Amino acid sequence: VPLVESGGGLGQPGGSLRISCAASGSTFRGYFMSWYRQAPGKEREPVARISPGGAGTKYADSVKGRFTISRDNAKNMMYLQMNSLKPEDTAVYYCNAGSGGLYNINLPGDYWGQGTQVTVSS
User: Fold this and answer.
1) DSSP secondary structure string, 22-68?
2) Residue 28 phi, psi dihedral angles, 5° rounding
3) Of these four, 5, 34, 39, 95, which has the most CB atoms within 10 Å of its CB?
């Protein structure tokens, strides 16, 4: 399933940003959708995952309570609302789709977007 991220950019420490993922095709609503990120010089890491219907979510400890993942199946869209931003949130954020379940967040699905840069700096 083709995935395209948007909405990245520069955010201030303590501020907010929202990034989006647009999916093509009618199968979007059947996938577990996730956000991953990769900072310079570091491995890609999971951020959050949402179940196909949107009722279930799973977050990495580093973003729990600050980030919120959501989806709109009618629009084939997924979102990541990022609040209380920290400089260590700086990374390229990737949209991911798969069928691996809600809690296996360390195991990404088969489909990736191209990534969107998020930079947190004053």
Assistant:
1) EE-STTGGGSEEEEEEE-TTS--EEEEEE-TTSS-EEE-TTTTTTEE
2) -50, -45
3) 34
